[in-house]
Model the fold of this input.
Amino acid sequence: MADGNVEDSIYPIAVLIDELRNEDVALRLNSIKKLSTIALALGVERTRNELIPFLTDTIYDEDEVLLALAEQLGNFTPLVGGSDHVYVLLAPLESLATVEETVVRDKAVDSLRNIAVEHKPKDLESHFVPLVKRLSQGDWFTSRTSACGLFSVCYARVNPNVKSELRNHYKMLCNDDTPMVRRAAAGKLGEFAKVCDGDQVKADLIPSFTALAGDDQDSVRLLTVEASIAIAGLLNSTEIEDLLMPTIRAVMQDKSWRVRYMVADKFTELQKAVKFEITKNDLVNAYHHLLRDAEAEVRAAAAHKVKDFCEALPKDCQEQVLMNSILPCVKELVNDPNQHVKSALASTIMGLSTILGRDGTIEHLLPLFLTQLKDECPEVRLNIISNLECVNKVIGVSQLSQSLLPAIVDLAEDSKWRVRLAIIEYIPLLAGQLGIDFFNEKLNNLCMTWLSDSVYAIREAATKNLKKLVEEFGTDWAQNTLMPKVLNMSRNQNYLHRLTTLFAINVLADGCGKDITSKTMLPVIINMGGDSVPNVRFNVAKTLHKLEPNVEDSDLQSKVKPCLEKLTTDTDVDVRYFASEAIDVLGLKLHCKDLAKVG
Done:
């Protein structure tokens, strides 16, 4: 009996070993994903003494298997006996942190960071810190890059002597011969600085920051931008000016567009970190140059920040800086040859209206909005229309309708159907921002005109718009304002317009509900069943089929079924086909409902 228990307890690890040695990658991967179950079966002691050593010795596999293993081990602390024994997980994770595949190393580092906080202080110094040192002195660059992400999670909880050693190791990584290691050190420098004391940052880390910012590889230099933000947050204004700004000024004028792009992308964060006075003296001029950069990617990143940058300016110089430095650049960017730059600007330019006020917006911004509304790029037009609400709050609906609405109407009536199609898609968005009264007065007729357009794509898009408008304004508006105009088209001499009525009803029925569908829409559809054009008649059959869930049961029996029965005897083969298909489905549903009543 005892032998049987021993065999049972050995079985899980035996199966794991067998599967991990299997030639099938999927089987090995599946085995790794079941590690926690196997560890539970083995118990904490055998997991520490047998499973973890076995895993440490077998880290030579496909990358996807190693990735799964690295992820599993990050959650293994309870399975090895908690914080008292968590250090046993370091050996396999250390091996995984040195492999060639980047995603495996990154996941191993993530798991090491997770378990670092679960170490007791004495175990941190006796087990985790030595691991960090070994990785930082490894022969291969892979281990040294992994080490960079581990300093910040252990630094705060070790004694001063160990802290000094860790800073020296980090400085060595910042001066490493391999660019990939320096890049990793630059990427984690800001994070490490946040856990160091101010004097240590000034004495040890700022020299490393300066060296990395002057690195011959732009992939290293660009990562110092984020580090500068973190370090600036730890210093006072005088220290920032003396210790950081000379380097930051050089980075902002870097010869590589990738570095300048990173500066532009992080500009508002940098602005907040370096305080008001430095912003006025240095950053305004730097931002001005970024908006006029030779590279479109840099201009786009800078344009995307224009609203946030202006809002964060000191109030005493905000309007002056905007008028003298920013607005001239913005006026140039409105006509930029690159559509990504114009699109980025269009997404933020409307926010400047709250700073300039009503008169300033009307004088300086409205002409720019009009230019962008007529831009050939759809994304530029969409970004302007999407942000009209903030301008509406500043200058009011009346002024907005006088200035921008004519431009929207011109686009809506453009001779090119693709231009008309583009503006149709923005109308529900515009309606939501400007309100029901404004829509009824200025845009309602425009929407109805599109339903009669000569191009099918326009009629189709206008029909889909109706559903969005009902969702925005409600069923009362639909019944009182929209439905009379839509249903009136059923009597139009052009059969295409009569078809549009049916298409519109198909779209509107779900939003309007059974009551409006049965009382208002259904009589018109039944009447169109006698239309002289077969295309209209078979679309009546299709519409009745689709509307069944939105029609009252009594109307299905008394109105819908007789109409479909009549259409099944139609002279046109297509009408008969669609009517028969609809009546078969309807008959089955009516039969089911009758059975349900009897039951």
Q: What stands out?
A: DSSP finds 36 helices and no strands in the chain. The first helix runs from residue 2 to 20. Residues 1-8, 593-599 have pLDDT under 50 and may be disordered. The two ends are 60 Å apart (CA to CA).
